[in-house]
Amino acid sequence: LLASSAASDVYKRQVLSQNDFLVIDKDNIMRKTLFAAAACATVLWTGCSKSESVTVTIANPLAIERTGEMVEIPVNDIYTQLNLSDTAQFVIYDEKAQEVPYQLTYDEKVIFPVSIASKASVNYTVQQGTPSLVNAVVYGRCYPERLDDIAWENDRAAYRAYGPALQKSGEKAYGYDVFTKSVEELVVEDRYAMELDSASRAEIKALREAGKKEEADSLSRAISYHIDHGNGMDCYAVGPTLGGGTAALMPDSAIVYPYCYKDYEILDNGPLRFTVKLVFNPLVVKNDSNVVETRIIQLDKGSQLNKTTVSYEYLTQATPVAAGLVLHAANPEGYAYDAAKGYISYADPTTNAEAGNGIVYVGAVFPASVQTTTQLFEKPAGDALGHVLSISTYEPGNDFVYYWGSGWSKYGFEKAEDWTNYLKDYAEKVRNPLVVTVQK
Question: Would the pTM of this model clear 0.85, i.e. be above it?
């Protein structure tokens, strides 16, 4: 239920409260878990099998296996067909009568992971009952202590978007950042806690002032999230670029860079899905001087990619919109794209290609065919040479939906081909969604 053992009590309370679990210590967690299990067993023993149930049939139209894919069902479909009160709870079982974890989302859906063989279908059963507690494997929050970063993660990857405090500092960082991970456990909270530990920072400063540079450097490395301490690191460079998959309008082939977000709202915070809404400062886009961008970013358990829905209020004319991946000088030709299959990809050599930090694979996937291209800067921005881009047309009043994210050569993607195959399969799944039927 909790993050790694080094996580602070504050973090534990945040994870728990975000998921309506009110326990904050190990003993209470154990009692709560046992109580939930006992309650569920009681329901089963006293005739749960005889109660009304709903069958959810899920069909896979593709000739590829789909494992751990998240299914969405309007929660009202469940409550209506089971004739449940608003406060009633329910349990989901698979075909082996094993309980399946689920989450209720801000937009009134129930989501749960499913696994289906190629060209097959499976049935899940939903009936009234007390669900077991679910381990939180997705989490995020705002870090005002680190210049208003919004950072989030699941069991596969971690990300951040930069905030207003960073913008006020004058630093230009337009795009999404990538934190690599090599473990399933939640790690980002611990990384920030180490990186920003005031006592350690004070000791480093004192050591430097005393001329003890080697000791200061050693302690600095020990707390830095730019060093892999066994679960991943921050070794990806963003700078004044679109980073790891940010979208931007492109009137007249020029990128109108969104800066750091202005306002945010966390809509879902685990255990299976994180969703955040970001609203940006007004942009000038050709004749429109007050264009406000809104993004809804969603990361599910098991996924390398974030589903992102972008809209532009007060934009009056159809405008090209691009999602981009920054290209760095250490691997200028390390990109791949396929307009028809709807993906772009890049093998990023990390901020220090000689340090043995592996390769950060970044990519984006699109529900429809896109125009793909590269666009180099007139003058490199540090070691950033330009972008690999996918370009679509944004129609005012509509949403632009796409998926972006990352993988790491030290956690499941040994070579670039593995990553591009993942993106190809992901795009095919997006274009051929699972078919869901709910019936009594």
Answer: yes
